[in-house]
Amino acid sequence: MRVRLPAPVAAIYRAVEELSVAYPGRKFTPDGHLVGSIGEVVAAEALGLTLYPSSNPAHDAYDADGNDVQIKMTAGRSISLYADCSRLVVLKVVSPEEAEIVYNGPGAPVWMAAGKMQKNGQRPITLFKLATIRQDLEAAGVEFIAENGGGAGVRLRK
User: Fold this and answer.
1) Which residues contact 135 (CB under 8 A, 6 or more apart)?
2) For 45-89, what is each residue's pLDDT tens digit?
3) Alpha-carbon distance 10 to 12, whole Å?
4) Positive or negative, the Cα torsion across 12, 18, 19, 21?
5) CB-based contacts of 38: which residues, under 8 Å, 6+ apart?
6) Nearest CA to 31 among 47, 48, 50, 12?
């Protein structure tokens, strides 16, 4: 599922592209809190989530049913997690105007498949591995549903 990025966010990513062309060899990569906060607001808008105050431990938002949600966004090939979470939403920036929701499901299988704890206290996992987890869950009867499909999230296939 692709979602539009808000105009001010798209302007940031267009500026990054322009700077990269103007100064070859330099990296102008938005990261850290900026990308985290952008991901949180984009996911909240796209999936009807309610955000917790900034720096809430383990979860960034909750859904209409009161379930906690951890949100991650990247322009790269992986994300990192500090802890297990109830539900995980992962977005990948695919253009200055759009992000793709690459994972929106249970956090436990992702935490179990994540790499070993790094010095920064986080465990990495690639977006490729997230796609594999999603395929495995779908094969086991879990449906990933869009916001307009009866409520964003997952459910067992009927």
Assistant:
1) none
2) 999 999 999 888 879 999 998 999 999 999 999 999 999 999 999
3) 5
4) positive
5) 5, 9, 30, 73
6) 12
How far is residue 127's CA from residue 112's CA, in Å, rounded to a whole number? 15
CA pair distance 114, 7, nearest whole angstrom: 33
pTM over 0.70: yes
Given the structure tokens 């990054």, which residue do they identify? 16
Q: Which of 145, 131, 138, 6 is nearest to 79 (CA)?
A: 131
Question: DSSP 3-state helix, strand, coil percentages of the chain (rounded to 5)?
Answer: 35, 30, 35
Instruction: Show Cβ contacts of residue 71 under 8 Å, excluding neighbours closer than 6 positions.
Output: 36, 39, 40, 43, 44, 49, 60, 61, 88, 89, 90, 91
Q: What is the pLDDT of residues 78-90, one digit of tens each?
A: 999 999 999 999 9
